[in-house]
Amino acid sequence: MDTVRLHRLCLGVTLLLGGCTVGPDYRPDRVDLPHGFNAAPDGDVGAGWTRATHDWWAQLGDPVLNDLVEIATRNNLDIREASAHLLAERELRARDEAALSPQVSVGAQAGNLQYSTATEYPPGLTGVDSNTRFWGYSLNVSWELDVFGRVRRGLEARDASVDALEAQRRGVLLATVSELVSDYAALRAAQARREVALANLRSTRDSAALVQRLYARGLANTLQTAEAQTEVDRARATIAPFDTVATQARDAIAVLLGRPPEAIGVDLNTPRALPTPPPLPAVLPSMVVANRPDIRVAERRYAEATARIGVAVAALYPDFTVPLTFDPSSAMIHTLMTTNALAWSALLSATAPLYTGGRLSAQVKAARAEAEAARLDYQHTIIRAFAEVEDALAAFHNEATRQGALADAVRDSSAALDRSERLYGAGLTGYLDVLSAQRSAYAARDARITSQLALMSDAVNTYRAIGAGWQGISVTETTLPVPHDEQARWAKHWRPHV
């Protein structure tokens, strides 16, 4: 290629590279945020939020729970799966970026060519050997000039997808921690309710023994002894369901830890007190938008869909490529590097759609519709997030009020049970009063534990709703299951032998 033509080709490439990027530029919607939440606690928003976003579960003061969270953030299979998807998307982004660079390939050929001797062309040609040895090699370069931004818009979409998967992994992390705390609270609540049921069983057995003593003295009848024994049987029957709930909670925790139930590695059989949730942090709607992973996912998917419009629009415009080929060939290997053996081509190629039956315009319309759907989903996600925060805050405060009333009920019912048992022992009241007092006292204690569990669940839901928890955890990047050097050995092992 002479110098003049080379300069002209370089100038043409430079002009083409200065082309425009078609399609709309992404601009996120302006979101009108409320001034605050109706049920939000008072306090210093900044300080409260900082404490809440970093290991809020540690404020429960339970070292066993802290150990479980640490194990789960390392071993949870959902988190590791989300990390693998993120790793794959980043590699796909690197693959798409390679389209901006020239693609170079090399090849080599060697062999014999056998020609037909049944025909002569040109006519009268004689003395031509029908068997020819052939040697050749090639260097091929192809460079797509991204004049209208098809590749660049695709990279914008891929970048947004990477960000969305990163936020999605944060959402998986947040969900894992929240579910773990909820399952742990359910386990401790089941153990506490079992202890209350055992205490009630002991109380009914004591009452039954008292009835038997009074019966032996002629101060009670067989109906009362039967009722007392029935109450003992009823109390004994309430214990087994709590064992079932505890077993299910332990198994759920094992799944979150990424381990079989028999290999949890943490003592969960020894009962511990049900954690008491700390005061909820003050939070603003802007913090929720900034920290909730699902909102970030929706916003990034909206950006990705907007970039896909540019990809679809670019397909309406010509494609420009620069194919360069260097293809020497010779019948003898020692002449392969000579000037006569050289063959090359340098072109500037352009292709443009002429008629596609409406396929390309339909793709553009579909991309615009998908972007609009993503925009609406983004808005819907924000509104839903605010509603979830309001619901969680209201549920927490209402349950806290209910728990205060249940504490009074436990105190009053315990006093009533004590009085009824003393009056019955003195023969001043009937046994039905004792049974009624026992049932009321047991129901009040059991309801109080259930309320404590509900309050804990409301606290977990609130932390999850405001997007708190993932900020304080560093997730190790997932690597490929097979190291690169081992992959190379596999490739070498399975390479076909020529």
Automatic annotation (TrEMBL):
* Bilayer topology term: Lipid-anchor
Q: Which UniProt keywords apply?
A: Lipoprotein, Membrane, Palmitate, Transmembrane, Transmembrane beta strand
Matching InterPro entries: MdtP/NodT-like (IPR010131), OMP_efflux (IPR003423)
**Compartment(s) of residence:** Cell membrane
Q: Show the Pfam families listed in the entry.
A: OEP
Does the record carry rRNA-binding as a key word?
no
Which ranges form a coiled coil? none
Q: What is its main location?
A: membrane
**One function term, GO molecular function aspect:** efflux transmembrane transporter activity
List where the protein spans the membrane.
none
Signal peptide range in chain numbering: none
What cellular component GO annotations does this protein have? plasma membrane
Family listed: Belongs to the outer membrane factor (OMF) (TC 1.B.17) family.
Q: What's the name of the protein?
A: Efflux transporter outer membrane subunit
